[in-house]
Design goal:
309 residues; alpha/beta; Rossmann fold; 12 strands; 40% helix; disordered C terminus; binds adenosine-5'-diphosphate; binds magnesium ion
């Protein structure tokens, strides 16, 4: 009896993609990873802003730090890894940008704001600000790898990465894909609920062996017009996390409604309101941040950096 003929001799058992298709896809992934390693090696300082909790001010910290570093003369790139809630276009004053340019060689050109901060965000590629991104984990991992493989950061010294809440796909992919990630910057609010979740983020970083560069406490207090202080969200969370995880507390930023106004308008509040307490605290945080990051000499974590991700 003649054996049944396979219609597709290259097909994997059980149907689906052929071996050739799988092999080609794997080759493409490897090539992209090689490009990520190559491009990331050219950027000395790569920091992801992490909190695991939403609404604590990660994006405000990322955008403000980027603009503060730019005003110090640093060349700064921002990678917005919050695909479902990208806020970098708005906070960096780039929400009018529609689409990213690609060069003939296939490299992606970041959008640049008035302070010279370069941005890559899925938010720049959506048809409207309200359009949702409906992606599963695997697609987000691919998007992160491809955007990092093809973006030409044009001489950036710093790459700041704005992360979504959680310790899932995006955070893991960033930690595992970026060779020589200098570290995570933690952001918390003083509330108990934020403290608990941010401790998870700190433990996540330790498990992955990524350095914790510092912690910022945001919305720490409100100064009333009579000068008295109200601890609206509680007190002491960042100090506790700093002690427990042996990470420097970079500063405590007060609540100031002008921060919300400035971030919504895409302007740096520390330049708009330089005399405010929040601006003074923030600029001191930025100074400490640079000191800590640059003390790593752009080589931190390079043991992992020399490997394929
Ligand atoms: N210290 C602050 N005082 C007042 N508003 C703030 C402060 N920090 C952040 N905000 C505002 O709170 C909102 C949430 O901040 P955001 O950075 O989007 O949080 P996350 O990225 O952690 O979800 C934003 O509208 C932001 O402008
Ligand atoms: Mg955010």
């Amino acid at each position: 009896m003649a054996l049944p003929q396979r219609s597709n001799p290259g097909a994997a058992p059980g149907g689906g993609q052929s071996y050739r298709e799988i092999a080609e896809r794997m080759k493409k992934v490897q090539e992209e990873q090689r490009l990520v390693v190559e491009r990331m090696r050219r950027i000395p300082y790569k920091v992801a802003v992490l909190s695991a909790k939403g609404g604590v001010g990660k994006s405000f910290v990322t955008a403000s730090l980027a603009m503060a570093l730019a005003t110090m003369g640093k060349v700064v790139g921002v990678f917005d890894a919050d695909f479902h809630g990208p806020s970098m276009p708005l906070m960096l004053g780039l929400s009018q940008v529609k689409g990213l340019l690609a060069r003939d060689d296939g490299s992606i050109v970041p959008a640049v704001n008035v302070y010279g901060v370069r941005l890559v965000s899925v938010g720049l590629m959506l048809p409207s600000e309200e359009a949702p991104v409906i992606w599963r984990g695997a697609l987000k991992t691919t998007a992160i790898r491809q955007l990092l493989a093809y973006t030409d950061w044009e001489g950036a010294e710093y790459l700041l990465i704005d992360l979504p809440p959680g310790t899932g796909d995006e955070q893991l992919t960033i930690a595992q894909t970026i060779p020589g990630l200098t570290g995570f910057l933690l952001v918390t609010m003083p509330s108990e609920v934020s403290k608990i979740v941010v401790k998870k983020a700190a433990a996540f970083a330790q498990k992955l062996n990524v350095p914790l560069l510092g912690i910022i406490e945001n919305m720490s207090y409100f100064r009333c017009p009579d000068g008295s202080i109200q601890y609206i969200f509680g007190k002491g969370a960042a100090e506790e996390i700093a002690k427990e995880f042996n990470v420097p507390l970079l500063g405590q930023i007060p609540i100031d409604p002008r921060i919300r106004e400035a971030t919504d308008a895409g302007v740096p509040f520390f330049l708009e309101y330089p005399d405010s307490e929040a601006a003074k605290v923030f600029l001191e945080i930025a100074r400490k941040f640079v000191e800590i990051v640059e003390s790593k000499g752009g080589k931190s974590n390079n043991a992992r950096g020399s490997e394929q991700p």
